[in-house]
Amino acid sequence: MDQVKIGKFIAEMRKEQNLTQKQLADKLDISDRTISKWECGKGMPDVGLMIPLCEEIKINVNELLSGERLSENHYPKRAEENMMRLIEENGNKKKRELVYVLTYGLAIVMVITLLVVSLWTQGFSILYYIDPPSFLFISSMLILFLGAAGLIRDFFYAFVLAFKDKPLNKNDAYERAENAVDLAIKVSVLDGALLFLFYLIFVLRDLGNPGSIGPNVAVATLSLLYGILFAAILLPIRARIRYKMGELKFTHKMDSLIPETEEKDEEKNEADVLQDNREATE
């Protein structure tokens, strides 16, 4: 989709209705920054906002996606072009998601392999990488933040949605799951960093005691490692959620185009029938 062209078209149609960005935003229950972002070509309206937006600026979805007014003669052709473009964009997105998942999976395998080889060759014990207090702190803070945001159920449900074969026809469920996982990723990294700084204070305080520096540095590093590890586990879950959301939005866009095309075809057929009847009468 040509977002710049669509953005200019939205601005033009908004001005035709004598609406400011703020007035249009209030009607759609969004911020005027979002309207400005669309009109600058830096984003597209969400599927759930397309029909309300079109109703406010007196256009249809097909014209919105085309970025211009369409005559009846050009309407079916542009509807077909828009559908083909959506299919192509959806296919490209699937390819990008596949590359992301494969790259991420390969990176995880490499890290685990290097860790195992390091432990095997140097004789380290796996106990060196276990610090229950740090693990419990990060886990507790994660649950606390999710609970405060009212997203605990959505966080656990995200794992179900991520690996569910058939996408649910509920965009809000995916959005809440994505918000929960996003929050969990940020909190995990933040908690790990805070613990790292906390233990670093002990390291600086005990510089006069060389024997305590090593253990304190190890615990501080483990805290940061746990935070990053939590985030790393959640990243593919978020990617899967976004992939499912993309599939759902694609389906909604296609559904919004097809009824309009069928309605135009019916109008054209009715007009042809009337013309034929008129000619027959004459």
Mean pLDDT, as a whole number?
Answer: 76
Helix content: over 70%
Structural class: mainly alpha
Poorly predicted runs are 258-262
Strand content: under 5%
Number of strands: 0
Q: Sum up the overall morphology in one term.
A: elongated
The total count of helices amounts to 10
C-alpha Rg (nearest Å): 27 Å
The largest sheet is:
none
Order of helices and strands: HHHHHHHHHH
Termini Cα gap: 47 Å
Short recap of the structure:
The chain is 81% helix and 0% strand. By secondary structure, it is mainly α.
What does this structure look like?
- The protein is an all-alpha fold and 282 residues long.
- Among the domains are: 1-70, Orthogonal Bundle (434 Repressor (Amino-terminal Domain)), CATH 1.10.260.40; 130-253.
- 81% of the residues lie in helices and 0% in strands.
- The chain is built from 10 helices and no strands.
- The protein has helices spanning 3-16, 21-28, 32-39, 47-56, 61-66, 75-122, 132-148, 152-162, 171-205, 210-281.
- α8 crosses α10 (210-281) and α9 packs antiparallel against α10 (210-281).
- The longest helix is centred in the C-terminal third of the chain and has 72 residues, at 210-281.
- Residues 258-262 have low confidence and may be disordered.
Which helices and strands appear, and what pairs or packs with what?
Elements: H1 3-16, H2 21-28, H3 32-39, H4 47-56, H5 61-66, H6 75-122, H7 132-148, H8 152-162, H9 171-205, H10 210-281
Helix pairs in contact: 2-3, 6-10, 7-9, 8-9, 8-10, 9-10
